[in-house]
Amino acid sequence: MALYACGARGAAWAGAPGRVAPPALRRWSLRSGSGTPPAEEAAAAAAPNVVRVPHAWRLQLERGGSRPGRKGAPAAAPGPPRSVKLLLRSRRKELSQAARQTVGRWEKPRLVSGGWKHRLSRGDYFRLERTRQESPEEAGADSPPSSFLALGVEPQLVSVLQDVLGISQPTAVQKRTIPTLLKGSSALCAAETGSGKTLAYLLPLIQRLLQARHWPTGHVASPRSLVVLPSRELAGQVRSVASYLCTPLGLQVREFGGGRGIGHIWRKIHAGPADLLVATPGALCKALRRRMLSLEKLHCLVLDEVDTLLDPTFVDLVEDLLQQVPLSTSLKEVSDVWDPKAQLVAMGATIPKGLGKMLSKVADLDGFSILTSQSLHHLQPHVEQKFMRVKGSNKVVEMLQLIKDRGPSSGGVLIFCNSASTVNWLGYILDDHKIKHLRLQGQMQAVMREGIFDSFQKGRSDILVCTDIASRGLDTTQVELVINYDFPPTLQDYLHRVGRVGRVGSAFPGTVVSFVTHRWDVDLVQKIETAARKRAPLPGMEPIIKKSLSNKEKRRLV
Length: 558
Known about the structure:
It is a single chain. This protein is of the alpha/beta class. The protein folds into three domains: 10-62, no CATH class; 111-135 and 380-517, Rossmann fold; 136-377 and 544-557, P-loop containing nucleotide triphosphate hydrolases (Rossmann fold, 3-Layer(aba) Sandwich), CATH 3.40.50. It has helices at residues 10-15, 23-31, 41-46, 55-62, 136-139, 148-151, 155-165, 172-182, 197-211, 232-246, 262-269, 281-289, 306-309, 315-322, 331-334, 355-362, 395-404, 420-432, 446-449, 452-457, 491-498, 519-534, 551-557, and strands spanning 86-90, 97-98, 125-128, 186-190, 225-228, 253-256, 276-279, 300-303, 343-348, 368-372, 384-389, 412-416, 438-440, 463-466, 479-484, 511-516. The strands form two sheets. A nine-stranded mixed sheet has the order 2-1-3-11-16-15-12-14-13, sandwiched between helices. Helix 8 (172-182) packs parallel to helix 9 and helix 12 crosses helix 14. The two termini are 62 Å apart.
């Protein structure tokens, strides 16, 4: 902004607020040292000097602020005031976002992580604040009906549920799922991690077992219902919950996983009749190929963590499995007394893009009910999530500091790595610092893996260093802090890891801290930050389906 010392002609322009000097006057001011036309220089010397102040500066001075840019004067930081509740908090206050603010769908927000691919960004961070105290699934649990009896669960099963597990109120996912499964419909059910999906399919399954106690069995072991899960730890957890419910009702539960040899599987199968069998895909297919097991009399099949079961690691095994199961195509076939067909239930916390197409290869989706929640694929609003841009060599120091800062009454800590070698290496680091911990990774022998997660759940050690083998479905209600030492390779993996805290019944609200090191990590962080600012689902997932769709709509979606 030019400074004008005005004479006879210039005084009128300088004295009038908001008016701009004519071009000739501006040219004279730039050429001459006095800033006035030569003819009026003498008159300008006698006239008082007038300084023009921009309108924005004048308003700021009236509010008690200082002129920006002046040496020694602090610049006013844009962004929400300190007293405003924040959705996203950044070290750079101008990039923070208020909780009441939402970025438009087509608007391109300015991201904290926008420049994180440059090495000079190391040390920067941002945090997604906890905007609610309970999960969306718990908040929706108050809507009617508010009891398992009202959902159609039999009184004897409700009584066992209350007496043994101490559960009396259904969660939102259980309210949506149980009535549909009790009718015998095949279904694809998806809901947030930690929302109560295990009981959502176990209760209808057990009730059907109670209604058909006497089932003919041939010379080959023939279970009446089957739950398939991607890991031995998850299979053991589901078997434990099912045993609590089935044993008082006189139902038998069996479970086996891979890694122990075919002899171990044979002993498990022939230990006695099984009303419910819980197994992993690899061990199950071994038994089927050797004709140690028959699924011809199966009347209920559950694929838990279906997004993992249908990825390239397991999809061939699942296809082989489903080819040997007589799946139903209508409710009439499920309820047939003489020759019932199997009800298929697929459960998951995420529906990655293309899952419907993969599922259609192994099952007929025409008779499927599709049940999902409105907050599916959204970031958990009740879990605090912090992203730190750090140098790879500094991650160990940051991790040790997070462990050191924990209080004496803190909950458990899960430290996720992307490889078994990193798990072992971090274990040596923690040993050197005399920090008690457990390790869990897929390359361990079955004998070594057995009981590790159970020990962590029971509090014998409050730190578990693991790969994503511990991110799927495992009950971690005592975990307070999740550290992503290695940033997860996909957005689905990130959602599953975040789901280890803030679960239904958790003792702690939960916090997730992620170390961002590589350029490809930044790409995922930018997608997460954009989704958080827009309050939108993470990209690359199937669209949310609120209700069961018509066959025509289903074919269009899958």
